[in-house]
Structures are given as structure tokens and as C-alpha cells.
Amino acid sequence: MEEELMQIKNSAVSMIIDASDQKELEEIKLQFLGRSGKLTLTLKEITKIPAEKRAIVGQLANEVKRVIEESIESKLSSLISYFSSQRKQNIDVTAPGIKPGIGHLHPMTQVLHDVIDIFKGIGFQVADGPEIETDYYNFTALNMPPNAPSRDTQATLYLDTKNSNAQPGQILLRTQTSNMQVRTMEKIKPPVRVIVPGKVYRVDDVDASHGFEFWQLEGFCIDKNVRLTDLFGTIDYVLKKVYGEKTKIKFATTNFGFVEPGVDTYMECTVCKGKGCNFCKQSGWSEIMPAGMVHPNVLKAAGYDSQKVSGFAFCIGLSRLVTLRYQMDDLRLLTNPDLRILEQF
Ligand code: DAH
């Protein structure tokens, strides 16, 4: 009987190996393990063999049954994976495709492009400059010598100069894109009309309207007979282009080391329409463009004759401009990579 069991096992396994689909496997299963299957019938004969041999034969019969069942299972799973990989390879080229998701420019970049276009339209060129800067171009050349009180408004991130030739405190992350004023003027002679968009860095507590890293757009215009009214006209033109002709703007005097006089430009808050909200600190106005007439000391540092030429400079808080345009009440949304936010623009 043992021999008979071994034969059953061998023929079942070889048939299973040769099986080419699930249906064939089911037939094999029926043929050996079904109610009148070969193995089932043989097992019924076990009662007829002497009691002392019965246990050993029973064990072998169980083993044969297990081997047949397991072989069927493993053949079945290999057939399934074979057919599914076949299906993948048979690509139906006529089936409708899956539409690829198309991205778009970040709201920051969209606004930047718009603003650059507006300035190009009135004769400004775009310049780019280093974010890692020297104390000289970021402060000293801008009439902000060491110990100048105006430096206190720009909490600065200094770089470690231990392994360099620079002195401690000489290399920093630029706090303002004004760093490009003297750098640019050293290279070109008036008339100068340049804008410099870029990132700046400060030590700051992050909240709805402050960040330690943000975008500015510096601009300056140097020529013969440039006056404060030219500055007002330029700012008015640009803000109305960006926000519409009805935009309300007001100017106030202020103090910056590198301009004299210094000017603060305020625009009616677009988030609350002048009513007062968290974003404008309940004032109804947003400070949007600090500016002023370039200080003679800055012109001198650049090698210009302050008796012959004059100019104005201004700065657009680009990050703030974006939040105002899209009425976002939190600056942090601009650096949030969550697609649910970005897809809204
Ligand atoms: N650079 C200044 C800052 O980041 C802003 C500024 C003020 C720029 C007046 C100017 C200006 O060009 O004229 O705080």
C-alpha cells in the first residue's frame, strides 16, 4: 500500500506541474482528493491492513495528501502571478490615457514675474546678487557703519568665519536686497534703473506676518535731477498696476540709514479692506514699500558724484505682496508645500 501511495503522490505532483490553468488544477484536485478520488479511495482501504502497520501507512497517507494540497496551492499562485504580469504586458494602446497632473508656478513666482514685467515696462533691468554677503555691502556702504542705530532694526545672521580669512562678523546672510545698490553702482554708470528680487534672512520670531527668510524686491534709479516726486510717481504707478487703479496709497516719512528722506508707503489692507484685521494689526493699512532718496554717502561709496546725480530707492516686501494679492492671512502659507494650498492659486 505504501508503494501505491507513493505512486499516487508522484503522478499527482507531475500532473500539477504540467497544469496550464486553474481549471486543470481543479480537475486534478478532484481526481485525487475528491470523494471518489484516487487517494480518498486508497485511504478507505487502510482499515483492511493489519493494525500494527496501520499507523505508519496512515501517516504516509496524510503526508501524501499534504504534499498534493500544497503543490496545488503553490501552482495556483504562480499561475495567478503569471497571468497578471501577462495582462500588464498586453497594453491596449487604444484605451483612453490617464491625464497627467500638470503643475503650475508657485504664487510667489507668478507675482514675481508680473512685477518684473511691470518694471521692465518702465525701463528697469533685473539684477541678481549674493545671499551670502559681506558686512560692507549689506551695511557699511549703505551709510550704516558699525554701531549705526539703524542696524538694530535688522537682526542679522552671521556666518562662522573660523576657517576663513574673514574677520568675525564680516560675513552674513544678507538682511536686505539693498546689498545690491553699491555692488551694482560700482559696475555701471548713471542712468541706472535696476530691480533686484531675492531672498533675505533675519533673526525673527515667526508669526502670521513675519518670517526668518522672506522675499524682497529692491529697486533704485539714479540719474540727473531725480526727485522725490519721481519716487512717488513710480510707486503709485507700480502699486496700481499690481492691485488695480482704485488702490489707496499713503506715504509717511521715516528713517533708514541709506536714504534721506526715508519714506514709508502704506496701502489699504486687502485682507480686511481697511476695516482692521490681524494681518494689518488692526490698522486697516499695510506697510508695503519702504523707500527714499539715496543718501549722498551711498552715492559716494559707489564712486558717483552726489553733486551731479541723485536717485531714489525702494523695496517691495514680495512675500507680503503675494499674501495681500491673494488675501492670505498668514505669510507661512507661502512656504507650506501642502498641495491643497498650492492648487488654489
Ligand atoms: N532694505 C530695507 C529693509 O529691508 C528696506 C528699504 C528701505 C529699502 C528704504 C530701500 C529704501 O531701498 O529706500 O528694511
Notes on the structure:
The structure is a single chain. The protein is an alpha+beta fold and 345 residues long. The chain folds into 2 domains: 2-90; 107-342, BirA Bifunctional Protein, domain 2 (2-Layer Sandwich), CATH 3.30.930. The protein is built from 11 helices and 9 strands. The protein has helices spanning 2-18, 22-33, 38-44, 51-89, 107-121, 135-138, 180-187, 228-243, 296-301, 318-325, 339-342, and strands spanning 125-126, 132-134, 171-173, 192-201, 213-223, 249-256, 259-268, 285-294, 310-317. The strands form 2 sheets. It has a 7-stranded mixed sheet, with helices on both faces. A two-stranded antiparallel sheet has the order 2-3. Helix 1 (2-18) runs parallel beside helix 4. The longest helix is centred in the N-terminal third of the chain and has 39 residues, at 51-89. The model has no long low-confidence stretch (mean pLDDT 91). The structure holds 3,4-dihydroxyphenylalanine. 3,4-dihydroxyphenylalanine (DAH) is lined by residues 176, 178, 218, 256, 259, 262, 290-292, 313-315.
Q: What are the key terms here?
A:
2 domains; BirA Bifunctional Protein, domain 2; 11 helices; 345 residues; alpha+beta; single chain; binds 3,4-dihydroxyphenylalanine; 9 strands; 7-stranded mixed β-sheet; two-stranded antiparallel ribbon
